Amino acid sequence: MTIYSFYIFDRHCNCIYNREFTHLDHANASGVGQVNKNNDSNASKLLFGILYSLKTISAKLIDSESEAETAVANALKSFTIGPYRAHYLESLTRLKFVLVSDDNIDNLQAILWELYSVYYIRNVVHNGLSPIEFKQSDDFKENETVGKISNSGFITETDQFLQSLRFFN
Q1: Cα–Cα distance between 3 and 168 in angstroms, integer?
Q2: Highest mean pLDDT: which of 126-130, 132-136, 154-158?
Q3: What are the structural domains, with CATH classification, of the chain?
Q4: First to last CA, the chain
Q5: Residue 33 — left, alpha, or beta (φ > 0 → left; ψ -120 to 50 → alpha)?
Q6: Coiled-coil ranges per the record (predicted)?
Q7: The sheet that has 84-90: what strands, in order across it?
Q8: Residues 6 or more apart from 44 whose CB is under 8 A from it?
Q9: Across the strands, what pairs with 97?
Q10: Helices in 8-151 by DSSP H: which ranges?
């Protein structure tokens, strides 16, 4: 059982954070990987497209129209494709948190909620230097951090938290 990647999408459908984990056989090398290198890749765009489509379908499958908006927003919790499972949480501010793991891990809703309510709120929302909107600039260069979460505290704390989980490796 393992976690392969962690994505955050904003309400404008942009991937604002991407963390890929590379799991090696060496005990000390687990967790190395890339941060914010694949935000604009086809993989992140396809993942968002799948999430959007499945969320729309799951919202239509809810029987009662009296369901709360949060129930509709979070009707989709996870889905499995081949050996991978994507775990999904959408906040009330329409941020989408996604963890990609192997298909043996059943439910990571509590983990996603902690990533949002503790680490994202503390390091990004409460940070006065962090942008409110992660817009892409017209002069965007590949190695520039505009439109991405580049807060070192957020990256370090989420890495430590995810690597401390018993099923990370």
Answers
A1: 5
A2: 154-158
A3: 3-164 (3.30.450.70)
A4: 6
A5: left
A6: none
A7: 32-35, 15-22, 3-9, 96-102, 84-90, 78-81
A8: 7, 15, 18, 38
A9: 8, 89
A10: 42-61, 69-73, 109-114
